[in-house]
Amino acid sequence: DNNKKNEKLLNIASRFMRTLYDFLKGSGFFIVLLDSECCILKVLGDKDVVDVASNLNMVMGAYMSENSIGTNAMSIALKENIPVQISENEHFTTAYQRWTCSAAPIHDIGGSIIGLLNLTGDKENFNQHTLGLIVAAVKSIENQIKAEYMNSIVDSISLGIYVINKDGILKTINKEACSILEDRKSV
């Protein structure tokens, strides 16, 4: 199952998609999360615009690769490994020429593409800042992936580790340190 394979990406990206959508409500834009094969994992946006996208088969499980639907921002971002914005007749598929799409690849800690984030809206709303929004959201997703990876490494160390900032506030503690402190509490 595609969603099982991408569960971690879906969980992390969904939080940032929700935040981005909170800013974009009512704007006519919708957000699409795709896996590393350009398959849609999630679509988020106002009901009217998501319904239009749905009628054009931009639904969970649909492939948006160049082989599937021709040139589009998602396929180019994946193929070239760069953020990209495509508008109007730059889309191969006539039905998509009503839109401006901004897409950026999401990388794992090794630099491999694990997904894409895409923001689509009416061509009349074309703005280069839209691409910046997507790039910022992708950076936030990648930073969260890195943080969760680092936490799993720290937790796997058999020594007790904790980090306290200059104000004496505990910032990180691993399971072993918790266990040691719990044992000491009962002495």
In spatial order, strands of the major sheet run 2-1-5-4-3
Helix content: 40-55%
Structural class by sheet pairing and helices: alpha+beta
Run of helices and strands = HHEEHHHEEEHEEH
Question: What fraction of the residues are assigned to beta strands by DSSP?
Answer: 15-25%
How would you describe the shape? elongated
Specify the number of helices. Answer: 7
What is the alpha-carbon Rg in Å? 20 Å
Number of strands: 7
Low-confidence stretches: none
Arithmetic mean pLDDT: 86
Query: How many strands, which pairing sense, and closed or not: the largest β-sheet?
Result: 5 strands, antiparallel
Give the distance, in angstroms, between the N- and C-terminal Cα atoms: 49 Å
What is this structure's SSE topology?
Elements (H helix, E strand, L loop, with lengths): L1 H4 L1 H18 L5 E6 L4 E6 L1 H9 L10 H4 L3 H8 L3 E4 L11 E9 L5 E10 L5 H29 L5 E3 L5 E4 L1 H11 L2
Antiparallel strand pairs: 1-2, 1-5, 3-4, 4-5, 6-7
Helix pairs in contact: 2-6
